[in-house]
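thought: fold this chain, then report.
action: predict
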Amino acid sequence: MPETYSYIRDPQAIYEESFRQVREAVDLSSFPDNLHSLVIRLVHSVGRPEIASSLVWQGDVTASAHRALASGASILVDATMVASGVTRKFLPADNQVICTLNDASVPQSAKTLGTTRSAAAVDLWRDRIEGSVVAFGNAPTALFHLLERLQEGWPRPAAILAFPVGFVGAAESKQALIDAGLDVPFITLTGRDGGSALACGAINAVARGDGGAL
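observation:
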């Protein structure tokens, strides 16, 4: 006979216990109240309470992003994994989730610009970016390229959720966002850590707003 393991099977009980443990493990006193739900969901998305101390933000990113989504704004993402991880039922206005990485024009554009496909794909956001919510869960070059375009005068998004990951450029791209002085609310995680799970967690958190049950 197969061995029977003892574990929680009830989905609601798993949900409630998960967030109870996150709240117990994370000191939220250093965060404003309007960031608590976002921080909790970021920690939950990767199971690592220690990331909380490396989060950096500007402005009321939760409120800004949620207002934008409630008004029908698009979500622009750097990777298909991020697009796939957005929980559509949380979106307040059946918002479009747009990833331009696989557009047919991107490979040639990347060659012309002398950069990655991820960065070249950002140029296709030009007519969609004003008032949007932008999320990065993969490519540092995409974040760098967006910062360059914003400094050239592109319209501003409503919020930037920046979690590029890796050994080359990830920490630097996020520090560039912090140092850019843009009048755009953002949240990011310093250092090499990041990834699609964090980007998805951030999108799902701001989509729900502060009222989302935890």
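thought: worth noting. The CA atoms of residues 131 and 157 lie 4 Å apart.
final: tokens above.
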